[in-house]
Amino acid sequence: ILSNGRYKSVEHRAIVHSTKERMSAAVFHQPCQDSTVAPLPELVKNDGRAQYSSISFMDFIKGYFAAKLDGRSYLESLKS
């Protein structure tokens, strides 16, 4: 939403090697719970229009987790 659809997230995939160990580190960032998530104004200006409406962060999180493993479809449903 913040990038107005410009930057896409990738699906995480890993190939397990039968004899080598693998280490992963998960890093998460999130805004304050009472904030609003919307496309950044400078990206809307460059792209011509906002692809997503603004939504409260908590409403976004509730919808995202309710979608379970279908997070991409949930994000698509938020397009304006």
TrEMBL record:
Coiled coil: none annotated. Residues 1-31 form the Isopenicillin N synthase-like Fe(2+) 2OG dioxygenase domain. It comes from Setaria italica. It comes from the Eukaryota. This is Isopenicillin N synthase-like Fe(2+) 2OG dioxygenase domain-containing protein. PANTHER family: 2-OXOGLUTARATE (2OG) AND FE(II)-DEPENDENT OXYGENASE SUPERFAMILY PROTEIN-RELATED.
